[in-house]
Design brief:
about 425 residues; Nucleotidyltransferase, domain 5; 17 helices; elongated; 14 strands; alpha+beta; five-stranded mixed β-sheet
Amino acid sequence: MNIQEKLLLDSLNLKPNEIESVQFCSHSIYVKLLPNASICPCCGSSRRKSKGFYNRTIKTTKRIYENYSVYLKLRRYTCLNCSHSYSDDKYIAPQNYSVSYNIIFEIMRLLQDPKMTIKQVAKLTNTSETTVTRIFDKHCHISRYTFPEVICIDEVYTKNSDFKAKYSCLFYDFYNHKIIDVLPDRKKDYLHYYFQPLMGSKELDNVKYICIDMYLPYKQICKIYFKKAIICADSFHVIKTLNDGLSRIRIRLLKSFESGSKEYYLLKIWRYLLFKPYDSFDINEKRKFNKVFNQYLNRYQLRELLLDIHPDLKIGYALKELYIDFNRLCSLEEAPVKLDEIIESFVSANIPEYSDFITAITNWKEEIINSFTLYRGKRINNGVAESLNSQVKLLLYNTRGIRNHERRRKRIMYAINKEGFSIKQAL
């Protein structure tokens, strides 16, 4: 057997001792199988008579054969016991399929990569986009996972959804780093519709902690359906609200200076220094020549010049650092007292740009305190959700959004969880 024939048999998942002959024509390849001791699938009898051969077209995974039509010459039999007709099939491909099991496995393996699109998979497997989509829809079976003790709730933007909703809601397993389910909408009405059949179930009662961003409908839904769970506010979103307030202070001051001034230069070019922790830069850091100031300066000195522009900026930065230290170092036991002190400090500063942040930490005070809870030695936050969300966003960006919600849900869960397909499902 030459190399060309061996590659062909590998692509069809056949062994040399199962082949009677391989014939290469101009644009066709005929593979004739040896007879086997198959029995009638209807009555189980081994008594049979031949009805000749029929050709079955099969696609292969090898691109060297993409210009060939590959035909399997299969024997047809008639059962002498019940007169049922059947073929001598070697389980090379599913019934009524022109693609082999090897192609199905390869398609499903490639679709586990969030970067892969349907078009790319079709090109790599020598099939059409329609075939890839049909195989995925038929062989990917993913139901909702059971809600664990700790869950995270987040959303992702899905502009091309057929559900007419801008955001899809995702539930994450905090400890196992898996997606529990993907919903087509994050609005309260749909969340009620989703959780109503589960209301009062042991599954929901077993949930101990839920981490959410500061989206009010999530909080309202959790209090209705997860009656025994403790709700935690994600620290990342709290700090984002804080940084937004500091950014508004910077923009207000920026508009008060001429574009050619040193103050404008610092507020415009070196704005990122305001959002770095205070200990990120050392006073002894190497200095570089700055043309605007005509002297050698390092980032520590530039930040000091930036903060000296206006008292509101210096106070705003100090308040930001106060909350960052609280978020990083505080414990669950100390959190209630220290958070009250922080709220008082922000109120006393009387900086209008921080009004939204003051409102947020006041309204979400209980949930912020709960976020200092440790579960198996790890503080509860939406870090898992944000990490997996980046992969989900990459998938949606590469595929330009998947309009069909059920297909989008299965593709997201299959690509992230790497589960939902097995050989049994293909067979």
